[in-house]
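Archive entry: two folds, one per protein. Generate the first.
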Amino acid sequence: MQNSLASYANQLNVRLKIFFLTMQEFFEFSLRTFGALGATRRYWKDVVYQMYVSGTQSLLIVLVSAVSIGGLLTFEIGNILTEFGAKGLIGRTTAFSIIRELGPLLTGIMLSARVGARNGSELGAMKISEQIDALRAFGTDPIAKLVVPRLVAALIMFPPLTALCDAAGLLAGAFMAIGYHSLDPAFYWNPVMNYLVPKDFYVGFLKPPVFAILMTLVTCFNGFSATGGTVGVGNSTIKGIVVSCGLVMVFNFYISKLVFEIL
């Protein structure tokens, strides 16, 4: 019994040391990334390419997800509100849900999965094949060359993708409300236009830059930390996606809570 407790305590001690060491390395990696932002002008071609990869190529999956969630949300909300004779609140409820929460959250999760997987796998493969070490040998800062363009591109592309996600979700909700719930278009769109206040847009568009930073730093850090061959690349990629998606959901709650308490 004592031996098993001692073994468990030793394993716990090792895991805690690994965790805090990883947090320390991630903090240093983040500081180095923000410190290298001045190299954006030097690598502007890389920034443009990453904008195309993380923005344009991600447009389809974001729109498909937004249309699906917007239509489903209006379908479910409309059924509930119809039971209480409050069908006229469908547009207002859908708009609040999408602009405040679902639009930014859905965009953050989709891009964490798609762009984050690409970041982790590419950088992990470069780490395993010693291409990152080769960059250092030639006097190039790998963080400035590989991470900063991805971060800047994500910061630029996440807000417009979120706006398109919001618009697609609202349009899908309108089609569902008009076609399925037989709601007059004016009863759907008037509450959307008249009841949304600046605070709703503040909370909705404050989230994308935060999600962009979290996703890029976490997935790139895991790519830079890959070890153990191709299996290690896969493990680091999966870990980066899982952690970044989890952080997106956690920060989504706290940003909403913070904005609505302050404003």
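Generate the second and append.
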Amino acid sequence: MNWLTNFVLPKIRAVVAKKDVPDNLWHKCPGCGQMLFHRELEANLHVCGKCGHHLRIAPDKRLGLLFDDGKYTIIELPKVIADPLKFRDRKRYIDRLKEAQNVKGAPPNRDAAVVAHGTVGGVATVICAFDFFFMGGSMGIAVGEAILTAARLAVLQEAALVLIPSSGGARMQEGILSLMQMPRSTLAVEMVKETHRPYIVILTDPTTGGVSASFAMLGDVTLAEPGAVIGFAGARVIEETIREKLPEGFQRSEYLLEHGMVDMVVHRRDLKAVLEHLLDLLSRRGQKTPLALAKPRPLPEQHP
């Protein structure tokens, strides 16, 4: 009986038992609804192979995509007061923060922005990338500190500054303190511009609210990923306010390109090459050939 119970029965159960299958093997494309296998999606830089929709990605993946050889150093950001207003709606703000920070593998005191430095095309570069998966990438005091830290580091290292917003705007739980990050971040990037270092913005989906109304639209060059929603107020709110139907594609990156708000719309696979090209042009110093006459490296072909 012991032989049957201890040996045969476990073997039978192992054969007929339902195996656990991870629930993240397939992802549904928000653009066309196609089911995408996670390995193919990873190989395609999280871009749908059927419709070209650019899915949102975490900051670590974005940093690895842009820095040379995927190598970079994360900068530890200053600690800020967690809940300055003791805000509470259906639950306490401090509890919401803890839930957002309680992610496996996440650094302590994680917030909606990550700052790293390294090289892009051999040019010293500081990148501040937003994390939309952290409370919608909302901009509070911690994000303001991240942008200010990135700007100071760029000035100190005589490096280029690249900001990659992906945000729903200011963080409502921090009230006026979150709104004050708009002028604060604007002054931070102006500090970089005063040293004549390149400041480039890469707009991703979505870039809205107070983020788009401050540092996100102040880049020396403004790039955007295809199909990204970029604007201040939502399209529905605008329609209800002006009582008119908005044009098709309104607030998408292609629409902003047509109306002069964005310099280039760049596919994610070409983003590093374009960024290298821009930094190569904007970072030249002490050359005999005038910048306007210097022969730049060819840009990669643009894809629809």
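Annotation attached to the second fold: Residues 141-157 form the longest helix (17 residues). The CA atoms of residues 81 and 190 lie 26 Å apart.
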